[in-house]
Amino acid sequence: MTAMVCGKLLAYWATRPTVMPMQQELSLIRDMRALDTADIAKDLASFISLIELVQRSHASNGIFEMTEADEAHTVGFFQWLKCLEKTLRVPLAMHADGLDLTCAELAKRMPR
Questions:
Q1: Which 3 state secondary structure label does DSSP give 61?
Q2: What single-letter DSSP state applies at residue 21?
Q3: Residues in contact with 73: Cβ distance below 8 Å, sequence separation at least 6, in sequence order
Q4: What is the 3-state secondary structure (H, E, C) of 73-105?
Q5: Exposure of 99 by Cβ count < 10 A (0-12 exposed, 13-18 middle, 19+ buried)?
Q6: How much is the pLDDT for 4?
Q7: Spatial distance between the Cα atoms of 17 and 86, rounded to a whole number of angstroms
Q8: Quick check: 57 and 84 in contact, CB under 8 A?
Q9: For the chain, what is the domain count?
């Protein structure tokens, strides 16, 4: 892979609507988790922009569509970002606000 992997992924996902259906959010998360750490390190700006795409969509829609099966992916993604922070020595999870919340935590914060 080349250093432009994050940039190419960003170019693709940036053409999508800001608010994505949950399945598209999960697809973007899978694409990001498939990236090589060295490639992420070479293009942190694009990678952070990708995190922010997921976060914006999740805050607008994903929190309402998320199921318990989905939360394993979103919370797992947040935890993966925390691990990457240690490896890369760069704050990443701060760009993923809310992705660490489970369905139960969301229900407590936003009762129906």
A1: helix
A2: -
A3: 26, 29, 30
A4: HHHHHHHHHHHHHHHHCCCCHHHCCCCCCCHHH
A5: buried
A6: 59
A7: 31
A8: no
A9: 1
Q: Are 55 and 97 in contact (CB under 8 A)?
A: yes
Domain containing residue 47: 5-109
Residue 111's identity, in one-letter code, is P
**Which residues make Cβ contacts (< 8 Å) with residue 91, sequence separation at least 6?**
85
Max alpha carbon distance in the chain (Å)? 46
Whole-angstrom distance, CA of residue 107 vs CA of residue 112:
7
Q: Give CA–CA dist 53/10, Å, rounded.
A: 9
User: Per-10-residue mean pLDDT for the chain, 112 residues long?
Assistant: 75 92 95 95 96 95 91 95 96 94 88 70
Pairwise CA distance, residues 5 & 34, whole Å: 11
